[in-house]
Amino acid sequence: MDPYKSSNAYKYEAAPYYIPEQEPKREPKRQQRKKKQQEPKKQNKAKMLLSLFTCFAITFLIMFRYVAIAEASNTVTRYKNELNEVQKVNEQLQVELDRSIDLKTIEKTAKNKLGMQQPKKYQVVYVQLDNDDYSEIIAPDMERRKPQGVVSLVMGKITNVLEYLY
Length: 166
Fold this sequence. Notes:
This protein is mainly α. It is built from four helices and no strands.
């Protein structure tokens, strides 16, 4: 007979026997609790690793862009130096050309090689010009017929006014 079902009175007996079946039931609960506690730690580690990787990727991208900018700047500087050198050579050649041009040499070349002669007095005609200059537009401007945007129309009008004034 089961002592617990017989009456409601307290029975002072020894503690119930140890039942090994109950203990394994409690351990899985503890293990589940441990697993639940370990899973957030794993998730936190994964999040931390992901954020760390993201930081490294962003840092690498920034450094890569700085390198690209530095290379472009070096290229621009090199091209500017080359341009300055070419301009100096061009100026030197222009000076040499100006020094080599001599009017007497040109006249000798024109008379001897090309057969040119000085004009005679009857070949010279003097022309009297008026001081007034006039210009007349004969053909309509073909660009004006093309459809244009508002900005280009305004710029065209401003250009026309400036041409008229000057």
